[in-house]
């Protein structure tokens, strides 16, 4: 993992991403003010997907505690950030998950909760679709493809079938149906290549999921696989790393660069550390350049005008139509 | 092992411009325009390119258009069918020449 940090997260003068930013007059990359507080509730997950940048799984013990969650609530109270994006791991496995969602809603935040879908079928979590619908949160669900093979190869045997079942349940609770609650799907490529155009793949998903399973959804986000965590290992093991990095780099799009999500996001790690995004979080690159890097030292004004910590991996956000936690950005 | 085909060479394609830069410029512009969205989508054009790459058996093009097809949103099932289309035309084209063989045989036979 350490060599991962040094080659992919490479920063400073040797970081070609900064040179690309310079060429598009975006250097140094600055926050444009925080509108999204992204809370990573921990690395515990019921799945162990091959592309996971978090390297999450059932054996992980890093789970955000109540004190840190309370600190997040206090930040939301103080700074009035309009959106809370809850992620993990499987965030639902955090024992304080439901409490935290309700606290955010009480403060009037728009809550986006990311789910791997299969967790919704497990004992102890089957009430979640009703909980989601009752709280009217936006659900963002991972479904890399509308065919079983591609999905299972990436996310594990049987994941596709369970995901389809969970999507049907969400539809039955009014998610993703016309005039209903927001159910957005997340597509990511099943291999070392860039995602297709968000518009065209959304049309495919809409047609195929309806035809094959009677499932509907609100929208679909295409997300580029980041050269971090398990996906980086796959790139290395399969001899694809060099070519993939060249692909990302040669597809640098200045429009996507000006819209990278870190400019509006502040990301909190399970132990209260602060990051520019979930990817920097997994690389251990905390907020820097003079901005506080832990929730205990939170200073809103400083963080909202901070300089972003960038590295080679950032090319994953700026390739082609760009990529963010809410899909393409250009 | 030395081979005539080296995967690294794919990224050196533009070095061919050195002998004839004007011709390369014209080729690049035309190539780019051919693959842009038109009456056919970019996805359809990539699938045609993949099929033709198999018909002409160009390893560079197979490599490049396998990736391009994925990036335009095609899946392996669709790409395999495209290769079958190319193969069927190649096979059919060989086979229909059997008629010529039969004609020739007819002519020289007793
Ligand atoms: S990608 Fe999501 S579902 Fe898969 S292991 Fe990682 S956190 Fe869990
Ligand atoms: S990985 Fe993307 S979101 Fe994170 S700091 Fe780099 S550009 Fe920003």
Task: Please tell me what the overall shape of chain A is.
Answer: globular
Question: Which CATH class of chain A is shown?
Answer: Alpha Beta
The ordered H/E elements of chain B are HHHHH
Identify low-pLDDT runs of chain B: none
The main sheet of chain A orders its strands as 6-5-4-3-2-1-7-8
Q: Termini distance of chain B?
A: 54 Å
- CATH architectural grouping of chain A: Alpha-Beta Barrel
- Identify the overall geometry of chain B: extended
How many helical stretches of chain A? Answer: 14
- Quick one: how many beta strands of chain A? 8
Number of domains of chain A: 1
Rg value of chain B: 19 Å
Bound molecules: iron/sulfur cluster
Please bin the fraction of helical residues of chain A.
25-40%
Count of helical segments of chain B? 5
Give a brief rundown of this model:
Chain A has helices at 2-8, 16-23, 66-79, 97-106, 128-135, 148-155, 159-172, 198-213, 229-237, 241-250, 254-258, 278-283, 300-304, 315-318; strands at 36-40, 83-87, 110-115, 138-142, 183-187, 219-222, 265-268, 274-275. Chain A has 330 residues and is α/β, with parallel strands linked by helices.
Description:
The complex is a heterodimer of chains A (330) and B (110). Chain A has 14 helices and eight strands. Chain A is an alpha/beta fold. Chain A has one domain: TIM Barrel (Alpha-Beta Barrel). The two termini of chain A are 32 Å apart. The model of chain A is unreliable at 1-6 (pLDDT under 50). Chain B has a domain at 42-110: AhpD-like (Up-down Bundle). Chain B has helices at residues 21-35, 42-55, 59-71, 76-96, 98-108. In chain B, helix 2 (42-55) packs antiparallel against helix 3 (59-71) and helix 2 (42-55) crosses helix 4 (76-96). Helix content of chain B is 67%, strand content 0%. The termini of chain B are far apart. The interface between A and B is medium-sized, with 15 and 10 residues. The structure holds iron/sulfur cluster (2 copies). One iron/sulfur cluster (SF4) binds at residues 45, 47-49, 52, 54, 56, 88-90, 116, 142, 155 of chain A.
């Amino acid at each position: 993992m350490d060599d991962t940090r040094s080659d992919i997260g490479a920063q400073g003068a040797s970081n070609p991403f900064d040179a690309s930013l310079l060429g598009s007059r975006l250097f140094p990359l600055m926050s444009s003010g925080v509108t999204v507080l992204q809370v990573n509730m921990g690395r515990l997950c019921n799945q162990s997907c091959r592309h996971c940048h978090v390297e999450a799984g059932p054996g992980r013990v890093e789970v955000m505690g109540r004190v840190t969650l309370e600190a997040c609530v206090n930040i939301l109270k103080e700074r009035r950030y309009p959106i809370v994006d809850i992620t993990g791991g499987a965030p639902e496995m955090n024992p304080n998950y439901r409490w935290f969602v309700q606290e955010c809603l009480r403060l009037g935040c728009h809550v986006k909760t990311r789910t791997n879908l299969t967790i919704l079928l497990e004992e102890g979590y089957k009430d979640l679709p009703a909980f989601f619908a009752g709280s009217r949160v936006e659900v963002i669900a991972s479904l890399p493809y509308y065919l079983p093979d591609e999905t299972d190869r990436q996310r594990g045997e049987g994941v596709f079938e369970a995901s389809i079942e969970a999507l049907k349940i969400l539809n039955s609770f009014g998610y993703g149906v016309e005039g209903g609650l927001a159910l957005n799907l997340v597509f990511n490529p099943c291999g070392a290549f860039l995602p297709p155009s968000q518009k065209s793949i959304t049309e495919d998903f809409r047609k195929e999921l309806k035809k094959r399973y009677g499932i509907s959804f609100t929208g679909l986000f295409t997300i580029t696989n980041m050269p971090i965590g398990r996906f980086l290992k796959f790139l290395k093991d399969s001899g694809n790393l060099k070519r993939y990095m060249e692909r990302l780099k040669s597809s640098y799009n200045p429009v996507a660069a000006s819209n990278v999500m870190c400019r509006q996001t502040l990301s909190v790690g399970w132990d209260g550390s602060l990051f520019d995004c979930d990817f920097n979080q997994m690389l251990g690159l905390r907020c820097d350049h003079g901005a506080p890097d832990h929730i205990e030292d939170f200073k809103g004004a400083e963080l909202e005008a901070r300089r972003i910590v960038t590295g080679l991996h950032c090319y994953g956000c700026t390739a082609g139509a760009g990529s963010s936690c809410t899909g393409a950005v250009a | 092992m030395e081979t005539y085909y080296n995967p690294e060479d794919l990224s050196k394609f533009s070095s061919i411009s050195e002998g004839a830069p004007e011709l390369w410029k014209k080729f690049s512009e035309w190539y780019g325009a051919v693959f842009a969205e038109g009456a056919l989508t970019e996805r359809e054009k990539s699938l045609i390119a993949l099929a033709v790459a198999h018909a002409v058996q160009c390893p560079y093009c197979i490599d490049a258009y396998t990736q391009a097809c994925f990036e335009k949103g095609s899946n392996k099932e669709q790409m395999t069918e495209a290769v079958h289309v190319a193969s069927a035309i190649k096979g059919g084209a060989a086979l229909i020449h059997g008629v010529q063989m039969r004609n020739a045989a007819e002519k020289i036979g007793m």
